[in-house]
TrEMBL record:
This is Poly-beta-1,6-N-acetyl-D-glucosamine synthase. The gene is pgaC_1. One of its GO terms (molecular function) is glycosyltransferase activity. Signal peptide: none annotated. Residues 9-112 form the Glycosyltransferase 2-like domain. Its EC number is 2.4.1.-. Keywords: Glycosyltransferase, Membrane, Transferase, Transmembrane, Transmembrane helix. The keyword Transferase applies.
Length: 339
């Protein structure tokens, strides 16, 4: 007898993504493995997102205030009826067999707690070279890391419901890097796989300054990810490239001492450009030499935003008790006279 296929609940957190929500939902309802239920958790959107969700046979949970993606995912998980929870960001459209492939892998490997996917190298909507940069980079580093990993990304990821209930909810104190914090708990008991057969197209930031602001904001919580990276977690960028980008701006200060010392920042830039030959070769094959030059320049500037954000994150980590994961908050001091 053929084995029973477990039921799947698709959970879609959403905040002001009317541009992509319809494509996201259409892709879910076109899956070869039909979901038991589809839950859209709208995190107090001010656009037409809720109207779009109502066009589909899905459950709409309308949050009265914006609480962030972690809280939205937790609300969806609490309402889900499926044996497997498939978390999907509302700016991503799945390939038709994504759910089926995730289910197959969870069934085939009893020790596997979570399967998450790889983004397509082509964006959901091609809005220009910045978005093409993002799509190529996001695809490459995920594809390079595919296999058994120590980090899960829930932009498109499946987890057994009983595993989610055992590990606990997403940390609602985190609006970024919540995946990394969750992975730290998950990998202690279950294995994680990133699969090239679970795929989707993503609509990302399409302008340079918003992209840099987003990277700066997200990088402030990189300190929460350092432990996972050391333990073999996924990293989008090569450490040598990050170091070279970090050293280039301060090395410019050597210029007044001697013009020859300007070779130092130039060397840093050269080291950065050569730090990830696999990525450069991939971009060259995909888009040609002209785009590779553009890609490398944008990649360098993005690294500067990453370094500045990480530095700011360290300062906040040391000075703000409420910053970062809930588990590191300081225990309140008891009131005087209490035992």
């Amino acid at each position: 007898m053929p084995r029973a296929r477990p039921s799947v609940s698709v959970i879609i957190p959403n905040f002001n993504y009317e541009k992509t929500l319809r494509a996201c939902l259409e892709s879910v309802f076109a899956q070869t493995h039909a979901p038991l239920d589809v839950i859209v958790v709208d995190d107090a959107s001010t656009d037409r997102s809720r109207d779009i969700a109502r066009e589909f046979p899905c459950v709409l949970i309308a949050s009265p205030r914006n609480r962030g993606v972690s809280a939205a995912r937790n609300l969806g998980a609490a309402a889900a009826r499926g044996e497997i929870l498939f978390f999907l960001d509302s700016d991503t459209a799945l390939s038709p067999d994504a759910l089926a492939n995730a289910v197959d892998q969870l069934l085939d490997d009893p020790g596997l707690g979570c399967v998450h996917g790889v983004l397509d190298p082509e964006p959901l909507y091609d809005d220009g070279p910045v978005e093409r940069y993002h799509a190529l980079h996001a695809h490459f580093w995920r594809r390079r890391g595919a296999g058994e990993v120590r980090t899960a990304f829930f932009a498109l990821g499946a987890i057994w419901k009983h595993v989610f209930e055992e590990i606990g909810p997403f940390d609602e104190n985190l609006r970024d890097s919540e995946d990394v914090e969750y992975s730290g708990r998950l990998v202690e008991k279950y294995r994680i796989r990133m699969s090239e057969t679970v795929t989707g197209r993503h609509d990302d930031v399409d302008r340079l300054l918003p992209m840099l602001r987003e990277q700066y904001r997200r990088s402030q919580l990189l300190i929460a990810a350092v432990g996972q990276m050391r333990a073999g977690g996924l990293s989008a960028n090569r450490p040598l490239g990050v170091l070279a980008a970090a050293l280039a701006p301060p090395a410019l200060l050597l210029g007044p001492l001697s013009p020859w010392l300007l070779l130092v920042p130039a060397l840093c830039v050269l080291v950065f450009a050569c730090a990830d030959p696999g990525l450069s070769s991939f971009v060259l094959r995909a888009k040609g030499p002209g785009f590779l030059l553009w890609f490398t320049c944008v990649h360098f500037v993005l690294h500067l935003a990453l370094v500045l954000g990480a530095a700011r994150g360290v300062v906040r980590w040391l000075t703000e008790p409420e910053f970062g994961p809930t588990v590191r908050r300081r225990t309140p001091v008891p009131a005087a006279g209490r035992r």
